[in-house]
Design a protein that fits this description.
Blueprint: E1 2-6, H1 11-22, E2 26-31, E3 40-42, E4 60-63, H2 76-98, E5 106-112, E6 119-120, H3 137-147, H4 150-154, E7 158-164, E8 166-168, H5 173-183, E9 188-190, E10 196-197, E11 199-201, H6 202-214, E12 223-227, E13 233-234, H7 235-246, E14 252-254, H8 256-263, H9 265-271, E15 274-275, H10 280-284, H11 294-305
Parallel strand pairs: 1-2, 1-4, 2-3, 4-5, 5-7, 6-15, 7-12, 8-11, 9-14
Antiparallel strand pairs: 10-13
Helix pairs in contact: 1-6, 2-3, 7-11, 8-9
Amino acid sequence: MRIVVTGASGLIGSALVPALRDDGHEVDVLVRRPPRAHGEIRWDPGAGRLDPATLAGVDAAVHLAGAGIGDHRWTASYQRTLRDSRIDGTGLLARTLAGLSPQPRVLLSGSAIGWYGTAAGGDTGPLDESAPAGDGFLAHLVEDWEAAAQPARDAGIRVCALRTGVVLAADGGALARQLPLFRLGLGGRLGSGRQWLSWITLTDQVRALRFLLEAGPGDAVAGPVNLVAPEPVTNARFTAALASALHRPAFATVPRVALRVALGGFADEGVLASQRLSPTVLTEAGFRFTHPGIETALRAVLARQA
């Protein structure tokens, strides 16, 4: 297949692109700067510029671009950046793909488990993709983000909304920011530690995207897909598992109030959010996780870095 990828320099994209090429696919990446290498295509989501001729013959698209949720304090300005970077790009790509002839077969469009709000699942058990949208800035953002792909759906393109959880990788994302403290024995739970964490290893994230791309007509998946492991854990259990994998203690606790002072709105809707989710669509489609449990997952992630 010829596959176009946005967000190729991010944590997921930088692992996905070489994996797809190893599978024998032709992969082009959309970049916001002038192209510097073969396979790069320039686009400008903010200005609404993407030449349809550059996507002629594309069989599939994977849209991962968007400003980092936890990269900055959530000022009003950065909240606009978060929205614009997702909604403008998604709408532009969806409209462009819809206007192609022939059209691509599938669009895997970035999304997040923020859809479910800050207290999803809880003691009632994991929620699946049928659960309604929650409340709060992130939930409303994700709802609009998924809606921006509607032109592709209306054109008959199979669209999967990638509701991605916390992606575990030793060299990027949330885990990489925690590792230095944990290696010094200074790690600890966040707030009460009772909040649920829905996670996935980078290995399984990439495997799941390849699975969704290659699904045949009879078993094709469309609609929202929770990209999370089948065993969500509390923050306290995650903390204990990470400390154990590193052979370090983890007695510290970061108080909720300190997180709010340091992170603002991202504290409550990000690190303190409780989201207990199930990958029902993936597992019912036949996907099997390499790392379903947190203890073995963390050992595998850390071993890759060694």
